[in-house]
Amino acid sequence: MFFVRCALETPPHFSFNASVPTKVIAVANQKGGVGKTTTAVNLAACLAAVGKKILLLDLDPQANATSGVGVEKVEGASVYQVLLGDGSLLEKIKPTPFAGLELVPSEVDLCAADLELARLENHLHRLAQVVKPVRECARYDVILIDCPPSLGILSLNAFAASDGILIPLQCEYYALEGISMMNRILDQLRSAGVNPGLEIFGVVMTMFDGRTKLSNEVVTEVRRLLGAKVFETEIPRTTRLAEAPSHGKPIIHYDPYSTGSAAYQLLTQEVLARLGL
Predict the structure, then answer these.
(1) What value does the mean pLDDT take over residues 176-187?
(2) Quick one: average pLDDT of 69-84?
(3) 170, 198, 169, 168: which is closest to 184 by C-alpha?
(4) Cβ-proximal residues to 229 (8 Å cutoff; 6+ apart), any chain
(5) Model confidence at 56, in pLDDT bands (50, 70, 90)?
(6) Tell me, what DSSP letter sits at residue 51?
(7) 3-state class of 156 per DSSP?
(8) Is the N or C terminus of the chain more exposed, i.e. has fewer CB atoms within 10 Å?
(9) Structure confidence at residue 20 (pLDDT)
(10) Alpha-carbon gap, residue 97 to 65, rounded angstroms
């Protein structure tokens, strides 16, 4: 039987630049298939459902976050040209069917971004530069960036533009290797001055199956290593969560009474507490 743990303790302190009201969180993991886009889409939808103004920026060329909120993939709709200096991010923002949630879509043209950006000056700060006006207009409470499943230039741009990184970890042993690699990348970005204040905002365990010894062992070990960085809520492995993207709906709108929906609503409360919202 699946279960979800609820946060009972005081959340760990997480500091933001108080002069900029909009928080930017990158949802990232270099490994695919760990629930990264599922977490980005469902957290964005749950934050919007409790009255927050949310921008979901789909930076993954696969564009699964775009289709996951019911928006069609359209050629030229992504942030690609803006990163190259043509236009503004505000022009790329689209509505979604869900109140309080807006989207910068993705599409396949972003596949070329890693090559193109590498040739430009300040290539790691291009996204930070285009996000800055959106942050400063205070139109949104939170900007969530769905990163590609890699540590290429697009992901590094997302890290440079963000206050913190939310890392979804699948309940398997390879997850521990992923955290180690992510920590090395963050250390390098901080020491190089790319984003000196960058922190891990939190780690969420995904695809949890309480019936298996493996899931429980991995969660125990991750909590031992990372302590309060790990959210109390664990996202269960459920069929309904897997079905929702094919209907273009976050789980809270596809099946609001499912265990997956309950889990993401609990995670949302933890995220709000850490953000101080």
Answers:
(1) 84
(2) 94
(3) 198
(4) 12, 200, 202, 203
(5) very high
(6) T
(7) helix
(8) N
(9) 57
(10) 14
